[in-house]
Write a structure and sequence with these properties.
22% strand; 3 domains; 11 helices; ten-stranded mixed sheet; 379 residues; ICDH/IPMDH
Length: 379
């Protein structure tokens, strides 16, 4: 293949805040090493949006930036959030806005056991679980209000796949402070995320999907979920197992080896995936993908940890594994496997002192990134 015939990918970079700015460059190292190894090229387009940009300009994420992102093949993102900015401004204005604008309805959060990473579970069971989280509905749609004399709000929400309109008028007697938040589930939303979970289960050689639910307490919302998911799973020739989310958390701690693909509404998926991160050894190893039919976005699950930003203490492996998910999504299966395999070999072959600081070692963020890059180059 000539140089002019090489596959080239334009990747948008949104390093974000705190340690996002530390770990995203290490993920880029891994991607570039894999590109050289498997004969494709990558160009980067950096976007400045995050706390620093907001504090300087008052701008969160303009629509023009989303249009520019849409020209990329994928988006690699760091953590968003900063204590100098009120909670929700950046998270809703960047993370959720991006997910909703590009209709990234899948939040894929795989959890794996890695060698050399201790689990808090007594038995040390191996974990290989994929949480498939619905990413655009439930309580995360951003429609709610708080008031001292009732809640009255006009509802207007436009998404690429549908538009929601209406009016909410609530009062309480006697008058007191109150708040209301709207949770939404649509047949479209539940059906498409369930079909994705089915496809993933087949890819993994599994015949069962577990649905995290709570219809015994929230009948209308999660009963609706159960009915549509059961219909889709039956059409796909698989088996659906319903488990209340509280019982699921208990069972995951007792014996995670029983589980494979877990399908979750938005809120439950956020919680269950963090529980699994703790079981597998820490957020510093947990990758995620926000996938839609257009631009998809890849990011580590962990937060921005501003207290250690710039100190070299951040673990870049979750960002590197997120880059592996990105390469897989782009169709670069060998490159994706090489990045993931390099992380595995690094953790397997390193002495305790050669591990990231988060895992009890002494290696800095950039040293860990360099080690993984070297392993990709030497494969």
């Amino acid at each position: 293949m000539s140089k002019t015939d090489r596959r080239n990918y334009l990747i948008g970079l949104l390093p974000g805040d705190g340690i996002g700015r530390d770990v995203v460059p290490e993920a880029c190292k891994a991607v570039e090493a894999a590109a050289d190894r498997f004969d494709f090229s990558v160009s980067w387009k950096k976007f400045p949006y995050g706390a620093e940009h907001y504090l300087k300009t008052g701008e969160v994420l303009p629509d023009e930036a989303l249009e520019e992102m849409g020209k990329c093949h994928a988006l690699l993102q760091g953590a968003i959030g900063d204590p100098r900015v009120s909670p929700g401004i950046l998270e809703r204005g960047i993370l959720l806005k991006t997910r909703f604008y590009f209709d990234q309805y899948v939040n894929l959060r795989p959890t794996l056991s890695f060698p050399g990473v201790p689990s808090p579970l007594k038995g040390g069971d191996c974990v290989d679980i994929a949480v498939v989280r619905e990413n655009t509905e439930d309580l995360y749609i951003g429609l709610g209000a708080a008031s001292s004399d009732g809640v009255r709000m006009e509802i207007g929400m436009k998404r690429p796949s549908y538009e929601l309109r209406g009016f909410l008028n609530l009062s309480v007697d006697p008058v007191m402070d109150m708040a209301a938040q709207i949770a939404l589930a649509t047949k479209l939303g539940v059906s498409r995320i369930t079909r994705y979970a089915c496809a993933l289960a087949r890819q993994r050689g599994e015949k069962e999907i577990v649905l995290a639910t709570k219809s015994n307490a929230v009948k209308e919302l999660y009963g609706f979920w159960e009915g549509i998911a059961q219909e889709v799973v039956s059409e796909e020739g698989l088996y659906l197992k319903l488990i209340n989310v509280d019982a699921l958390c208990y069972q995951l701690v007792k014996d995670p080896s029983r589980f494979g693909v877990i399908l979750c509404p938005n809120l439950f998926g956020d919680i269950v995936s963090d529980l699994l991160a703790g079981i597998a050894g820490g957020l510093g190893l947990c990758a995620s993908a926000n996938i839609g039919d257009g631009l998809s976005m890849f990011e580590p699950v962990h937060g921005s940890a501003p207290e250690i930003a710039g100190t070299g203490r951040a673990n870049p492996l979750a960002a590197i594994l997120s880059a592996s998910l990105m390469l897989e999504h782009l169709g670069e299966q060998q490159a994706s496997g090489a990045v993931k395999g390099a992380v595995y070999m690094y953790l397997r072959d390193s002495s305790s002192c050669e591990l990231p600081i988060e895992l009890g070692g002494s290696k800095t963020t950039s040293q860990v990134g360099d080690a993984v890059r070297s392993m990709i180059e030497e494969m």
